TrEMBL record:
Residues 8-416 form the Peptidase S9A N-terminal domain. Residues 481-696 form the Peptidase S9 prolyl oligopeptidase catalytic domain. Keywords: Hydrolase, Protease, Serine protease. This is S9 family peptidase. Belongs to the peptidase S9A family. It comes from Micromonospora fiedleri. Pfam families: Peptidase_S9, Peptidase_S9_N.
Amino acid sequence: MTTETPAPVAKRVPTERVHHDDIVVDEYAWLAAKDDPETIAYLDAENAWTERRTAHLSGLRTELFEEIRRRTQESDLSVPTRKGGYWYYTRTVEGRQYGVHCRRAVRDGETTPPISADGAPLDGEEILLDGNLLAEGHDFFALGAFDVSPDGRFLAYSTDFSGDERFTLRIKDLVSGELLPDEIPGTFYGTAWSTDASVLFYVTVDEAWRPHRVWRHVIGTAAADDVVVHAEDDERFWVGVELTRSERFILIDIASKLTSEVRVIPADNPTGEPAVIAPRRQGVEYSVEHHGHRFLILHNDGAEDFALAYTSADAPGDWVPMIDHSPGTRLEAVDAFADHLVVTLRSNGLTGLRVVPLDGGDAHDIEFPEPLHTVGLDGNPEYRTDRLRLRYTSLIIPDSVYDYDLATQELTLLRRRPVLPGPDGQPYQPEDYEQQREWALADDGTRVPISLVYRRGTPRDGSAPCVIYGYGSYEASMDPWFSVGRLSLLDRGVIFAVAHIRGGGELGRRWYDHGKMLAKKNTFTDFVACARHLAKAGWTAPDRLVARGGSAGGLLMGAVANLAPDAFTGIVAQVPFVDALNTILDPSLPLTVTEWEEWGNPLADPEVYAYMKSYTPYENVAPLDYPAILAMTSLNDTRVLYHEPAKWIARLRAVAPQGDYLLKTEMEAGHGGPSGRYDSWREEAFINAWILDRFGRA
């Protein structure tokens, strides 16, 4: 007779927390000690337990991984983008984890991008950077910056080999192929070149991982000699840096969740003092794009869903209206070209592009026929152009790249990412699948959209299994997207649904505002309403429904597990923000102070404290009949620290021991999980195998 090894049990070390006369004992706070051998031993034990509990799925995981691999054209080449005298593109090579970044000189008379249908290198190719060579000897690899200088001579790039998103910045001479001695550790995302490529601007973070300084580096000098161009002391604000498409100005973007300020430096005078476009005013957000003699200003000053104005580039001052505010149509971005503007917008829960000619012609929207889709500008680095590069996808249409002729208003499909035949040997046919939108009714009467995709012929009698995905924070919209890995679920009769809940941005700024701060619970009740609607409408049933979300969507997963455990048979929570109150109470942790305008400040406000305590998942674990839970995290995540899901799983086991809870920690990764594409496919296969097991279809 053999006895199965029991699940890991975390030791209990009572730690007291006192705020607003509320005393809380946290028995698992010790797990935040990343350097403690006991912490690592516990995470290792959880990984071993998860491996044992899912060992029977090993064959299915391999099968699902092979399905992703078989459907993917492993040697592939992106549609080249023209910048100056070169076409820039990225190649993938069969068997290699990372992309190869390349360029090829534009040839005489060449106006359309050269296409390589089989992913073969272009004739005359110049390799700028090979991620596979950089990643050798490392378990994790990510690029932060990849920025070619305006004259095409230098490449600024940065690398991260641990997943903590702290990068080392280097500069490569693309003429000689040699690395310059310049090396700058501890940088963040974002760089910008001066006009003559003699100066590079970059960003660093403070101890709380907040991007707070913009630096000026003179090429060929030591990093110790670099100069701080802007230091942001207000802990609510992040900084970023970029070069305008016109290459005339360096933009220093300074923003909190509610307020922004932009400063500019002429790119041909990189040592100049930054000029403020408009001083920050609490609650006013704006972004800047340069166009000729003016700066375009996209803003929400008296315009909930944003409006467009401009001011003088020579002497920024009053804002002159260009596009008035239209309630329900959220203006998200404006891109300036020599002869036209393109406004990215959102209306009725869908993305769109509006072209505004500057020759007096009428503005018009670019039309697409599908009822559910996502469209946006792709790489358009050229300021003077007669065509736009667009990227389009839907739940059933793979990523597609189009050129849009501005004169004829015609779309030309340049390439659709191929989906190779699956296990049955049959080619992928979008018409074999259906997508549609449903609307759930929330507790307060609000209609909440749901996007669904399923294989044609899937029954509508409640017998079909379903995965429902959600996020619902930071005004981030979960727009329709195509997934090769998802096909393995759809072909096994699984429905995939996306709940477009409040806290996201799908239905404009108000949709976001009604799912944050002291209205945050709307996010969770909306998701439960969507789950109940799918069951009531016959799409699925609670014992056939798995919920999935990550990061702030992981907070959602933990909250709905407490709120409606009977609505789901399983929950997948990836890098989940489940210990939200403890994190937001600690201003020394990454992101905390900047997050107070999203969640509220529980340190200063007892009402916020009580409200967050009433929903944060870790605080509200109870002796309930929870669905099975799979929590995924990464040891080096700087956004949602690994100890949040570790503490959550430990408390679930202690308080509701009858449940089935698994914790899987990537010991060499960050917020996005494994970095290599094959490793990412294996992770997706792992999750999908667990989901299918919950449906009894393993």
